[in-house]
Amino acid sequence: MRMLLVEDDDVIARELWLRWQRSNWVAEIAGTLSAGSAALAQGSFDLIVLDLGLPDGDGLAWLGQLRERDRQTPVLVLTARDRVSDRVHGLRTGADDYLVKPFAVDELDARIEVLARRAQLARGDLAAFGALSWLGQEGCAYAAGKRLELSPREFEVLGMLIRRAPRLVPKRVLIDALAERNLEVGDSAAEVYVSRLRRKLAGSGTVIRTLRGFGYVLELEDGEVAKKDRG
Ligand code: CA
Questions:
Q1: I need a labelling partner for 159 at 20 to 30 A (CA). Which of 114, 127, 135, 208 fits?
Q2: pLDDT on residue 231
Q3: How far is the CA of 44 from the centre of ligand 1 (A)?
Q4: How far is the CA of 7 from the centre of ligand 1 (A)?
Q5: Based on the domain organization, do 39 and 116 belong to the same domain?
Q6: Does residue 185 share a domain with residue 115?
Q7: Ligand 1 centre and the CA of 9: distance in Å?
Q8: Where a domain ends, among 123, 157, 191?
Q9: From the CA of 76, how far away is ligand 1's center (Å)?
Q10: How far is the CA of 90 from the centre of ligand 1 (A)?
Q11: Domain limits at 48?
Q12: Residues 141 and 188 grouped into a single domain
């Protein structure tokens, strides 16, 4: 995960940077709003952690401007302003979450994880069904925490099935979606990929059912319903 930390307190910035580095989160630190803008102009971030009191202005005004052109990137506001009216104003300006200083770093990390996951879900980069999880950006999928060895076509097919599960994926839709990703397959090849994928999902508690003439459905195996209901 790539984050932008806009914070002028060197002690906090350094502590967080070191901590996140150990979790393999890459953070770029901006000590001013203009440095934050410059960092955003250089590249994109998965998440922004924003202090409000900065030497060159107010973080909320900066956030308001950011939201005019970017509604997607999650922003977590980190500030000493602790009045309810401050929090409400922050959230209305476009903050996705708000944490008051002094804060517990474990709580900050947990909130960051929630925001990042929510953003991934919104982008369709993350999907789960039964014991299966599919991470579009990372290009990997897991069954009960164990990584599945998949070809690019199998990976895309699984992603479509999981995102739509337990609804039907028409065969035509599947073939077109692969073609869009430059992974062309013919009609009969699609069946080959699905059957290979089906073998790789054996024991995962999920099955790919073929509805002849229609398409494919990813379903929970008999007996897995209870597990699903438990969440
Ligand atoms: Ca500050």
A1: 114
A2: 41
A3: 23
A4: 6
A5: yes
A6: no
A7: 6
A8: 123
A9: 14
A10: 15
A11: 2-123
A12: yes
- CB contact at 8 A, 39 and 28: yes
Cα of 64 from ligand 1 centre, angstroms: 18
Orientation angle between helical segments 152-164 and 187-200, nearest 10 degrees: 80
- Residue pair 162/129 in contact (Cβ under 8 Å)? The answer is yes
Chosen domain end from 123, 138, 158: 123
Rg (CA), the chain: 22
Residues 95 and 75 in one domain: yes
Q: Same domain for 105 and 143? A: no
Q: What confidence score (pLDDT) does residue 226 get? A: 45
pLDDT digit string (tens) for 112-161? 999 988 888 777 788 899 999 999 888 899 998 899 999 999 999 999 99
| Eight-state DSSP code of residue 20 | H
CA 50/CA 65 separation, integer angstroms: 14
Cα–Cα distance for residue pair 16/73, rounded to 1 Å: 20
Task: Give residue 14 CA to ligand 1 midpoint distance, Å.
Answer: 14
Positions of the chain with pLDDT under 50: 226-231
Does residue 201 share a domain with residue 115? no
* Average pLDDT value for the chain: 90
